[in-house]
Protein backbone atom coordinates (compact mmCIF):
# COMPACT_ATOMS: atom_id res chain seq x y z
CA UNK A 1 0.00 0.00 0.00
CA UNK A 2 2.81 2.36 0.86
CA UNK A 3 4.49 1.67 -2.44
CA UNK A 4 1.31 2.41 -4.43
CA UNK A 5 0.70 5.64 -2.49
CA UNK A 6 4.25 6.72 -3.24
CA UNK A 7 3.80 6.01 -6.93
CA UNK A 8 0.51 7.91 -7.02
CA UNK A 9 2.09 10.87 -5.23
CA UNK A 10 4.99 10.89 -7.71
CA UNK A 11 2.62 10.82 -10.68
CA UNK A 12 0.61 13.69 -9.18
CA UNK A 13 3.75 15.72 -8.61
CA UNK A 14 4.85 15.17 -12.20
CA UNK A 15 1.44 16.32 -13.44
CA UNK A 16 1.67 19.51 -11.35
CA UNK A 17 5.17 20.23 -12.62
CA UNK A 18 4.00 19.65 -16.17
CA UNK A 19 1.14 22.10 -15.73
CA UNK A 20 3.46 24.78 -14.32
CA UNK A 21 6.01 24.20 -17.09
CA UNK A 22 3.31 24.49 -19.75
CA UNK A 23 2.00 27.67 -18.17
CA UNK A 24 5.47 29.16 -17.96
CA UNK A 25 6.18 28.35 -21.59
CA UNK A 26 2.85 29.88 -22.61
CA UNK A 27 3.52 33.08 -20.67
CA UNK A 28 7.07 33.25 -22.05
CA UNK A 29 5.81 32.79 -25.59
CA UNK A 30 3.19 35.50 -25.05
CA UNK A 31 5.81 37.86 -23.67
CA UNK A 32 8.12 37.13 -26.60
CA UNK A 33 5.30 37.64 -29.07
CA UNK A 34 4.44 40.89 -27.34
CA UNK A 35 8.03 42.06 -27.60
CA UNK A 36 8.14 41.12 -31.27
CA UNK A 37 4.84 42.89 -31.92
CA UNK A 38 5.82 46.10 -30.12
CA UNK A 39 5.58 48.97 -32.59
CA UNK A 40 8.44 51.47 -32.88
CA UNK A 41 7.42 54.87 -31.55
CA UNK A 42 9.98 57.37 -32.76
CA UNK A 43 12.61 58.41 -35.25
CA UNK A 44 15.58 56.06 -35.69
CA UNK A 45 19.19 56.90 -36.58
CA UNK A 46 19.86 54.43 -39.39
CA UNK A 47 23.44 55.45 -40.19
CA UNK A 48 25.93 58.27 -39.90
CA UNK A 49 28.73 59.58 -42.10
CA UNK A 50 31.24 60.90 -39.57
CA UNK A 51 34.98 61.56 -39.68
CA UNK A 52 37.23 59.32 -37.61
CA UNK A 53 39.89 62.01 -37.26
CA UNK A 54 40.21 65.78 -37.24
CA UNK A 55 43.03 68.23 -36.60
CA UNK A 56 42.85 70.55 -33.59
CA UNK A 57 40.73 73.59 -34.52
CA UNK A 58 39.51 71.73 -37.59
CA UNK A 59 35.91 71.36 -38.78
CA UNK A 60 33.75 68.31 -38.02
CA UNK A 61 30.79 67.57 -40.31
CA UNK A 62 28.47 64.66 -39.53
CA UNK A 63 25.53 63.58 -41.68
CA UNK A 64 22.90 61.17 -40.35
CA UNK A 65 20.18 59.22 -42.13
CA UNK A 66 16.99 59.27 -40.04
CA UNK A 67 14.03 56.94 -40.65
CA UNK A 68 10.42 57.00 -39.50
CA UNK A 69 9.15 53.42 -39.04
CA UNK A 70 5.66 54.51 -37.95
CA UNK A 71 2.45 55.11 -39.88
CA UNK A 72 2.35 58.81 -39.06
CA UNK A 73 4.48 61.85 -39.73
CA UNK A 74 6.96 62.51 -36.93
CA UNK A 75 8.70 65.70 -35.88
CA UNK A 76 11.32 65.15 -33.20
CA UNK A 77 14.52 66.53 -31.76
CA UNK A 78 17.69 65.00 -33.19
CA UNK A 79 20.97 65.71 -31.44
CA UNK A 80 24.66 65.55 -32.23
CA UNK A 81 26.78 64.73 -29.18
CA UNK A 82 30.55 64.77 -28.68
CA UNK A 83 32.17 63.68 -25.44
CA UNK A 84 35.73 63.28 -24.18
CA UNK A 85 38.89 65.13 -23.09
CA UNK A 86 36.92 67.63 -20.97
CA UNK A 87 34.56 68.35 -23.88
CA UNK A 88 30.81 67.71 -23.74
CA UNK A 89 29.13 69.24 -26.77
CA UNK A 90 25.48 68.93 -27.80
CA UNK A 91 23.80 70.38 -30.91
CA UNK A 92 20.06 70.01 -31.61
CA UNK A 93 17.92 70.10 -34.73
CA UNK A 94 14.21 69.48 -35.18
CA UNK A 95 13.59 66.95 -37.93
CA UNK A 96 10.35 65.98 -39.68
CA UNK A 97 10.10 62.64 -41.52
CA UNK A 98 7.10 61.31 -43.46
CA UNK A 99 5.44 57.98 -42.53
CA UNK A 100 7.75 55.11 -43.50
CA UNK A 101 10.22 57.57 -44.98
CA UNK A 102 13.80 58.69 -44.42
CA UNK A 103 15.55 62.01 -44.18
CA UNK A 104 19.00 63.41 -43.57
CA UNK A 105 20.34 65.88 -41.06
CA UNK A 106 23.78 67.50 -40.99
CA UNK A 107 25.73 68.92 -38.08
CA UNK A 108 28.91 70.99 -38.34
CA UNK A 109 31.14 71.74 -35.37
CA UNK A 110 34.46 73.55 -35.11
CA UNK A 111 36.97 71.67 -32.93
CA UNK A 112 38.14 74.95 -31.40
CA UNK A 113 40.41 74.48 -28.39
CA UNK A 114 39.97 70.70 -28.50
CA UNK A 115 42.94 68.89 -27.03
CA UNK A 116 44.43 65.96 -28.90
CA UNK A 117 43.06 62.59 -27.88
CA UNK A 118 40.17 60.17 -28.30
CA UNK A 119 36.55 61.30 -28.34
CA UNK A 120 33.20 59.67 -29.01
CA UNK A 121 30.66 61.41 -31.19
CA UNK A 122 27.45 60.62 -32.99
CA UNK A 123 23.78 61.34 -33.50
CA UNK A 124 20.91 60.44 -31.20
CA UNK A 125 17.14 60.54 -31.15
CA UNK A 126 14.75 59.91 -28.27
CA UNK A 127 15.18 56.13 -28.53
CA UNK A 128 18.22 55.40 -30.74
CA UNK A 129 21.87 56.35 -31.15
CA UNK A 130 24.66 55.84 -33.67
CA UNK A 131 28.11 56.55 -32.24
CA UNK A 132 31.70 56.25 -33.39
CA UNK A 133 35.22 57.25 -32.38
CA UNK A 134 36.91 60.54 -33.23
CA UNK A 135 40.67 61.07 -32.96
CA UNK A 136 41.73 64.70 -32.60
CA UNK A 137 45.31 64.58 -33.81
CA UNK A 138 48.02 66.40 -35.72
CA UNK A 139 49.31 63.09 -37.12
CA UNK A 140 48.39 61.58 -40.47
CA UNK A 141 46.60 58.23 -40.40
CA UNK A 142 45.88 55.52 -42.96
CA UNK A 143 43.78 52.36 -43.04
CA UNK A 144 44.60 49.96 -45.87
CA UNK A 145 42.72 46.67 -45.62
CA UNK A 146 43.43 43.34 -47.27
CA UNK A 147 41.43 43.17 -50.49
CA UNK A 148 40.93 41.70 -53.92
CA UNK A 149 41.95 43.64 -57.03
CA UNK A 150 42.11 43.24 -60.79
CA UNK A 151 45.75 44.30 -60.48
CA UNK A 152 45.28 47.82 -61.83
CA UNK A 153 43.91 49.65 -58.79
CA UNK A 154 43.42 49.38 -55.04
CA UNK A 155 41.21 51.08 -52.47
CA UNK A 156 42.51 52.72 -49.32
CA UNK A 157 39.66 52.45 -46.84
CA UNK A 158 40.43 55.72 -45.07
CA UNK A 159 43.15 58.29 -44.55
CA UNK A 160 43.63 61.48 -42.59
CA UNK A 161 45.91 64.13 -44.12
CA UNK A 162 45.79 67.09 -41.72
CA UNK A 163 47.43 69.51 -44.19
CA UNK A 164 46.24 67.85 -47.40
CA UNK A 165 48.28 65.68 -49.74
CA UNK A 166 48.17 62.21 -51.23
CA UNK A 167 48.18 58.51 -50.43
CA UNK A 168 50.87 56.56 -52.23
CA UNK A 169 51.08 52.80 -52.74
CA UNK A 170 54.47 51.10 -52.47
CA UNK A 171 55.56 47.58 -53.27
CA UNK A 172 57.74 45.53 -50.94
CA UNK A 173 60.98 47.05 -52.23
CA UNK A 174 60.20 49.86 -49.79
CA UNK A 175 61.21 47.47 -47.01
CA UNK A 176 64.69 47.29 -48.58
CA UNK A 177 64.99 51.08 -48.50
CA UNK A 178 63.86 51.96 -52.04
CA UNK A 179 61.56 54.89 -51.19
CA UNK A 180 61.39 56.19 -54.79
CA UNK A 181 61.40 53.04 -56.91
CA UNK A 182 58.84 51.33 -54.70
CA UNK A 183 56.06 53.83 -55.54
CA UNK A 184 53.56 52.04 -57.80
CA UNK A 185 50.49 54.22 -57.30
CA UNK A 186 49.31 57.57 -55.99
CA UNK A 187 45.92 59.12 -55.30
CA UNK A 188 44.61 62.38 -56.65
CA UNK A 189 45.27 65.40 -54.45
CA UNK A 190 43.28 65.18 -51.20
CA UNK A 191 42.08 68.27 -49.36
CA UNK A 192 43.04 68.57 -45.69
CA UNK A 193 40.96 66.24 -43.55
CA UNK A 194 39.54 62.75 -43.42
CA UNK A 195 38.81 60.73 -46.58
CA UNK A 196 37.20 57.32 -47.14
CA UNK A 197 37.34 54.79 -49.97
CA UNK A 198 40.20 56.41 -51.88
CA UNK A 199 40.67 54.58 -55.18
CA UNK A 200 44.27 54.57 -56.45
CA UNK A 201 45.28 53.70 -59.99
CA UNK A 202 48.45 51.62 -60.10
CA UNK A 203 51.44 52.11 -62.45
CA UNK A 204 50.53 55.71 -63.24
CA UNK A 205 52.93 57.88 -61.23
CA UNK A 206 54.47 61.12 -62.49
CA UNK A 207 58.22 60.73 -62.86
CA UNK A 208 58.17 56.92 -62.69
CA UNK A 209 58.55 54.43 -65.53
CA UNK A 210 56.99 50.97 -65.46
CA UNK A 211 57.29 47.94 -67.68
CA UNK A 212 54.07 46.47 -66.33
CA UNK A 213 50.51 47.84 -66.29
CA UNK A 214 49.12 45.61 -63.53
CA UNK A 215 50.29 43.62 -60.54
CA UNK A 216 52.09 40.38 -61.31
CA UNK A 217 50.13 38.24 -58.89
CA UNK A 218 49.04 38.62 -55.28
CA UNK A 219 51.43 40.51 -53.01
CA UNK A 220 51.81 42.81 -50.05
CA UNK A 221 51.47 46.52 -50.78
CA UNK A 222 52.05 49.45 -48.45
CA UNK A 223 49.95 52.63 -48.19
CA UNK A 224 51.70 55.87 -47.13
CA UNK A 225 50.21 59.40 -46.78
CA UNK A 226 52.31 62.19 -48.35
CA UNK A 227 52.25 65.96 -47.92
CA UNK A 228 51.73 68.62 -50.57
CA UNK A 229 54.78 70.84 -50.07
CA UNK A 230 54.88 73.20 -53.07
CA UNK A 231 51.17 73.99 -53.47
CA UNK A 232 50.80 72.71 -57.03
CA UNK A 233 48.43 69.85 -56.02
CA UNK A 234 50.48 67.47 -58.18
CA UNK A 235 52.41 64.62 -56.60
CA UNK A 236 56.08 65.33 -57.23
CA UNK A 237 57.97 63.10 -54.80
CA UNK A 238 59.29 60.71 -57.46
CA UNK A 239 59.92 63.29 -60.20
CA UNK A 240 61.83 65.53 -57.74
CA UNK A 241 63.92 62.63 -56.38
CA UNK A 242 62.27 63.05 -53.01
CA UNK A 243 62.73 66.81 -52.69
CA UNK A 244 59.00 67.59 -52.82
CA UNK A 245 55.82 66.15 -51.33
CA UNK A 246 57.51 63.92 -48.78
CA UNK A 247 55.69 61.51 -46.47
CA UNK A 248 53.90 62.41 -43.27
CA UNK A 249 55.95 61.19 -40.32
CA UNK A 250 55.43 60.45 -36.64
CA UNK A 251 58.49 60.38 -34.41
CA UNK A 252 60.67 60.46 -37.51
CA UNK A 253 59.04 57.44 -39.16
CA UNK A 254 56.75 57.50 -42.20
CA UNK A 255 53.09 56.71 -41.49
CA UNK A 256 52.26 53.43 -43.27
CA UNK A 257 50.02 50.40 -43.31
CA UNK A 258 50.70 47.21 -45.25
CA UNK A 259 48.13 44.68 -46.42
CA UNK A 260 47.83 41.73 -48.76
CA UNK A 261 46.31 42.40 -52.19
CA UNK A 262 44.90 39.34 -53.90
CA UNK A 263 44.79 39.62 -57.69
CA UNK A 264 41.67 38.05 -59.21
CA UNK A 265 40.22 37.80 -62.68
CA UNK A 266 36.88 39.21 -61.47
CA UNK A 267 38.37 42.63 -60.86
CA UNK A 268 36.87 43.17 -57.42
CA UNK A 269 38.68 45.99 -55.63
CA UNK A 270 38.23 46.22 -51.88
CA UNK A 271 34.99 45.87 -49.99
CA UNK A 272 34.17 49.56 -50.01
CA UNK A 273 33.33 49.38 -46.32
CA UNK A 274 33.62 52.42 -44.06
CA UNK A 275 34.53 51.40 -40.31
CA UNK A 276 34.16 54.81 -38.53
CA UNK A 277 37.36 54.49 -37.36
CA UNK A 278 40.80 54.40 -38.88
CA UNK A 279 42.19 51.28 -37.26
CA UNK A 280 41.62 48.22 -39.47
CA UNK A 281 42.87 44.68 -39.59
CA UNK A 282 46.24 44.66 -41.32
CA UNK A 283 49.89 45.42 -40.69
CA UNK A 284 52.09 48.46 -40.70
CA UNK A 285 55.16 48.47 -42.95
CA UNK A 286 57.24 46.88 -40.19
CA UNK A 287 54.90 43.88 -40.00
CA UNK A 288 53.23 44.90 -36.73
CA UNK A 289 49.63 43.72 -36.57
CA UNK A 290 46.91 46.35 -36.26
CA UNK A 291 43.39 45.63 -35.08
CA UNK A 292 39.96 47.13 -35.55
CA UNK A 293 38.57 48.81 -32.43
CA UNK A 294 35.04 48.42 -33.75
CA UNK A 295 31.99 50.49 -32.86
CA UNK A 296 31.83 51.88 -29.33
CA UNK A 297 29.75 49.60 -27.11
CA UNK A 298 28.03 52.44 -25.29
CA UNK A 299 24.61 53.24 -23.99
CA UNK A 300 22.79 56.08 -25.79
CA UNK A 301 23.70 59.51 -24.49
CA UNK A 302 21.35 60.84 -21.87
CA UNK A 303 18.79 63.44 -22.93
CA UNK A 304 20.18 66.95 -22.87
UniProtKB/TrEMBL annotation:
Region (Disordered): 263-304
Family matches, as InterPro entries: Ig-like_fold, Slg1/2_DUF7282
Ranges of Gly residues composition bias in the record: 269-280
Location of the DUF7282 domain: 141-262
Biased composition range(s): Acidic residues: 281-292
Protein name: DUF7282 domain-containing protein
Amino acid sequence: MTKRRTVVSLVAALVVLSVFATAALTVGAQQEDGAQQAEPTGLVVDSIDAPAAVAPNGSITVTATISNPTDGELTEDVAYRLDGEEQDVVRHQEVTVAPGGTGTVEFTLEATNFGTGDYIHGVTTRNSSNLTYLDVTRDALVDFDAQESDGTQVVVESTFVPEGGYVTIHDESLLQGDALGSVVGVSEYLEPGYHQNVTIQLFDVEGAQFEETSLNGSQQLIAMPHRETNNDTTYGFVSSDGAQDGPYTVDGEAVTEASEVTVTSEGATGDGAATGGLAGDGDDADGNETTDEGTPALEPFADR
